[in-house]
Amino acid sequence: MSDRLAQVSQHLSTSHGRGLLAGEVAIITGAGQGIGRSAALIFAREGAKVVISDIDEKRLASVADEIKAAGGDCIGVAGDVGADDFPKKIVDATVAKYGKINHIVNNAGFTFDKMIHTTPDDTFDIIMKIHVRAPFRLIRQAAPYFRLKPEARENRSIINVSSTSGLHGNVGQANYAAAKAAVIGLSKTICKEWGPFGVRCNTIAFGLIHTRLTAAKEAGATMEIDGKKVALGVPGATPEAAASNPFIPLRRGGNADEAAAAMLFLASPLASYVSGHTLEVTGGAGI
């Protein structure tokens, strides 16, 4: 965790006793690095018992060690969020360990960029599977722990990650933009169906956040999905380019800790009357 985020988190914890999420249980997918890692760290810092997941078992174990070293409580459940058995696997592990679920942060995902006329069916389908179908199936699996009688209700929320690509479209991202637009509709529907049970559901739409997905493609970062290597990143991307981008009023990209802090807000009691909303975390871009 960065010094800046640690200072903010310390202030929040001091102001709210044991933390904004004290005693609550949060599932965070894609927590092996980047935004998911930062979210896991700050949620744990704010008192949550964190269930973290990632397709990369080694990275997942490293984050779990970080949380425990800082005095946090967590378990890691490695796996592919798109696998048929994943929702039951992580929900069962969470309930077996902690007995309840307060929050789900559907953060796992990646980009597989191609122009529309060169996008094959499987490239489109895998992005829809990971960014739309997987969050839906995890939320559905967890339904019994959210649709509760009034006397059993605590602070409960679902956060689905979208993007400015889902709000405005983006060249070379027909699959990703379609998926991230669908996530917004999913969140609004959950808000309306589960609101009577006291459950809040929001979407967070990130602009440029510096992670491996937005780093220079020339760096060679890849991941393997269904036996295929997928190249990650944006051709020619640099922090300097972001600083000179006239479409970002703050003249910089965000970092993973800033992205995670926005997630914390949506999960916390500070957002107790915020539901069905899409929070744009963009440095002012797209307004």
UniProtKB/TrEMBL annotation:
Biological processes per GO annotation: fatty acid biosynthetic process
Record's keyword annotation contains Lipid metabolism: no
Superkingdom of this protein's organism: Eukaryota
Gene3D superfamilies given in the database record: NAD(P)-binding Rossmann-like Domain
InterPro entries for this protein: NAD(P)-bd_dom_sf, Sc_DH/Rdtase_CS, SDR_fam
Alphabetically ordered keywords of this record: NADP, Oxidoreductase
PROSITE patterns in alphabetical order: ADH_SHORT (PS00061)
Molecular function, one GO term: quinone binding
Pfam families referenced in this protein's UniProt entry, alphabetically: adh_short_C2
UniProt keyword rRNA-binding present: no
UniProt similarity note: Belongs to the short-chain dehydrogenases/reductases (SDR) family.
Protein's name according to its UniProt entry: NAD(P)-binding protein
